[in-house]
Design a protein that fits this description.
The structure holds 2 protein chains of 2 kinds.
Chain A lengths: L1 H7 L9 E5 L4 H10 L1 E4 H4 L3 H8 L9 E4 L9 H6 L5 E4 L9 H6 L3 E3 L6 H17 L1 H9 L3 H4 L12 E5 L3 H12 L3 E5 L10 E2 L3 H6 L3 E4 L13 H7 L4 E4 L8 H9 L5 E4 L18 E3 L8 H19 L7 E3 L2
Parallel strand pairs in A: 1-2, 1-3, 3-4, 4-5, 6-7, 6-9, 7-8, 9-10, 10-11, 11-12
Antiparallel strand pairs in A: 5-13
Helix pairs in contact in A: 7-10
Chain B lengths: L13 E4 L5 H7 L4 E4 L5 H6 L2 E4 L7 H5 L6 E4 L9 H6 L3 E3 L6 H16 L2 H9 L2 H5 L12 E5 L3 H12 L3 E5 L10 E2 L3 H6 L3 E4 L13 H7 L4 E4 L8 H9 L5 E4 L18 E3 L8 H19 L17
Parallel strand pairs in B: 1-2, 1-3, 3-4, 4-5, 6-7, 6-9, 7-8, 9-10, 10-11, 11-12
The chains are: A alpha/beta, B alpha/beta.
């Protein structure tokens, strides 16, 4: 098993450091990595994860001290993972979110963690704003309507609703939330937010809890991390407070919203609409959404543009180089 | 609301209508003016009428205008007034008003919505997910970044200037083309449309349709915009050579399009229905309940101003190269 893994990625001349690759790599990333490091690819090995990690310990001349991990639930860097790979000293993750990395366990073991920094922020923010405009102004619904040839037959599609003056409540005002706020301000929206603590660098109105935010907002945008405190942060009560003219946009994690309650609220007209890029059990999307015209659905693509792909590669390589050179990580999550 | 005979007993000013008012407008204006449908007006009313109100986009031709010798003002209810014979209006010294800024914000918002929707393939991705293809076939292909794109705006009026401001907040580099530069604008002026297209990733059309601007976006311009370029039109269908647009999209000469307006509404070229790189809407960019209230305010303000001898609120320039 070990020899099969070793043979799959023959080291180029002069390469010293080994790197675990725990994500499917596109051509650009694979080529860039292989030019610099000895790459041990989990998906190429075909082995189960524990066996792969155990076998990697035997790598010559040294076991891989760094790992590149994808986000999105496929692999969790938790205690079991770290126990199986005690040689690992640095985890470089490529997701916007960090819910697949047990930061406490990494901190306990002194494992460095590098995140995606702000590489994704602009694309996610662009997409969030696109979803909000779409839901309020029925862009996708009108597109479907026209494509079905209904315009000449049934006349105009019903009116949408103005963006300007809408009170938009952003849950989580990090790099993504701030980028969203900047764009929506230019569109004439009134920005307010909830986060764990108020940010004294911004002048937007702060709400201590999500229910008060929802009560005074026309739209909610979920832009926070997924963790134990934020699971189902948008629940039945919050949807009720948002109200029958309110809309919700989620570009964070499906788990941030109680999906079953969202479906009920939409079906019963308790809220006016939703724009969703993420779902609780991707890529499965509840079929109840498919017949709703006041919902816009995209397949977890807010982060993905052709440009952000190469930006991300550059950042990952930059973090790996920094680690192996003994320099501070470019986008450290741990140490803080 | 509308009467078929003029009545000298009624003190309200007479306003002729090219077609019936929206019910909401009729209700709001009830009692302030005497509305008569132009087609039903008796000779006395036609001879007396000083104002013609044009609900929607009903055409106002030289023949219509010739029947109204006392006419002084044509009140439009839309952003564009290319459905009114402006040459005849100018020759007769008539004033023409449009919806002013009432629709500008919503048009600009919608234009931005179309830019994001086309670049990020939102509508196509939505259709993909709705058909259950995400679970079955995997991720929808990558789309392209909005932030940082070079945006060229054709027409920097009420709508164009607002589009510029919004896309600048997305980190887009904004340039514009118009008949003449706007010194107060922070954006780069490009004298030739072809050069603007060549230097842009996205071209947004927000200018009036006139003899000069008809089919301004032709094959040459679309080739200059290019295979990764996107055209967004919230102006008038006539600004674009539509059959050529369809060919350019089909052949990959142009990368994509977001269209709110067409040459022969509500007819939309059916070849567009099968294209994933196109977002189609039913001339709705302007329409929200708030903008309808807004345009009602502008109409009322123009009528009040006219009948009390004050300056009009949203007059349209009727010089030879009409812009707005």
């Amino acid at each position: 098993m070990a020899s099969a893994i070793a043979a799959a990625t023959a080291p180029p001349t002069g390469a010293q450091h080994s790197v675990l690759l725990l994500r499917r790599a596109n051509d650009y990333l694979a080529a860039t990595l292989r030019a610099r490091y000895r790459v041990l690819s989990f998906y190429d090995s075909g082995a189960p994860l524990p066996a792969f990690l155990a076998a990697s310990a035997a790598t010559e001349p040294e076991p891989p001290r760094a790992a590149l991990v994808v986000g999105g639930g496929a692999i969790r860097v938790d205690a079991a993972f770290l126990d199986a790979a005690p040689y690992l000293r640095c985890v470089v993750t490529t997701a916007a979110g960090l819910d697949h990395v047990d930061l406490a366990e990494c901190a306990r073991r002194g494992v460095l963690v590098a995140g995606a920094g702000e590489v994704f922020s602009t694309d996610v923010a662009d997409h969030a704003v696109g979803l909000l405009i779409d839901v309020l102004r029925n862009v996708s619904a009108a597109d479907r309507y026209v494509r079905r040839g209904l315009w000449p037959v049934q006349g105009d599609y019903p009116l949408g609703s103005k963006l300007g003056g809408k009170r938009v409540g952003i849950i989580g005002l990090g790099s993504i939330g701030s980028s969203i706020a900047k764009r929506l301000k230019a569109l004439g929206c009134v920005i307010q937010y909830h986060s764990r603590r108020p940010k004294d660098t911004v002048s937007f109105k702060y709400f201590h809890d999500v229910i008060s935010l929802a009560t005074e907002s026309d739209a909610l945008i979920v832009a926070c991390a997924l963790n134990d405190q934020t699971r189902h942060i948008v629940n039945k009560e919050v949807l009720g407070a948002l109200g029958k003219d309110g809309v919700v946009v989620n570009i964070a994690r499906g788990g941030n919203i109680d999906e079953a309650e969202l479906i009920s609220a939409l079906r019963e007209g308790k809220i006016a609409g939703a724009g969703l890029d993420v779902f609780e059990k991707e890529p499965v999307v509840p079929a109840e959404f498919f017949s709703m015209d006041n919902v816009v659905l995209t397949g977890h693509e807010a982060v993905f543009t052709t440009e952000s792909g190469s930006d991300l590669c550059d950042l990952m390589i930059g973090n790996l180089e920094a680690f192996f050179d003994g320099r501070p990580l470019l986008t450290p999550v741990l140490p803080k | 609301m509308e009467t078929t005979a003029s009545s000298t007993a009624d003190e309200s000013p007479l306003v002729l209508l090219v077609q019936p008012l929206f019910p909401e407008f009729a209700a709001a204006l009830a009692g302030r003016y005497r509305f008569v449908l132009a087609a039903d007006a008796d000779p006395a009313a036609a001879a007396e009428a000083r104002v013609l109100l044009v609900p929607g986009l009903a055409p106002v031709t030289a023949q219509h205008l010739a029947r109204l010798p006392a006419l002084e003002l044509v009140v439009g209810t839309s952003a564009g007034v290319d459905h009114v014979d402006l040459d005849t209006c100018r020759n007769r010294g008539l004033s023409v008003t449009n919806a002013g800024p009432a629709f500008a914000v919503d048009s600009a918002d919608y234009a931005v919505g179309l830019v994001v929707a086309v670049l990020r393939r939102v509508a196509a991705a939505d259709a993909y997910v709705r058909r259950g293809r995400w679970a079955a076939d995997g991720d929808y292909p990558l789309a392209t970044k909005v932030s940082g794109k070079r945006v060229g705006i054709v027409g920097l009026g009420n709508i164009g200037s607002r589009v510029a401001r919004r896309l600048a907040a997305f980190g887009c580099a904004v340039s514009y083309h118009s008949r003449s530069p706007k010194p107060s604008s922070p954006y780069t002026f490009v004298p030739a449309l072809l050069d603007l297209a060549a230097g842009s990733d996205v071209l947004v059309l927000s200018c009036a349709l006139t003899d000069e601007t008809k089919h301004m976006v032709n094959r040459e311009v679309m080739e200059a915009l290019g295979k990764d370029g996107v055209l967004v039109n919230v102006g008038r269908g006539g600004l674009v050579d539509e059959p050529e647009l369809v060919r350019c999209l089909r052949d990959g000469v142009l990368g994509g399009a977001g269209l709110d307006v067409y040459a022969n509404e509500p007819a939309v070229p059916p070849e567009l229905f099968g294209m994933d790189n196109v977002v189609l809407s039913d001339h709705r960019a302007v329409v929200t309940p708030e903008s309808m209230r807004g345009v009602l305010e502008v109409i009322t303000a123009n009528l009040d101003a006219f009948f009390s001898g004050r300056p009009l609120v949203s007059p349209v320039q009727l010089c030879t190269l009409n812009k707005r």
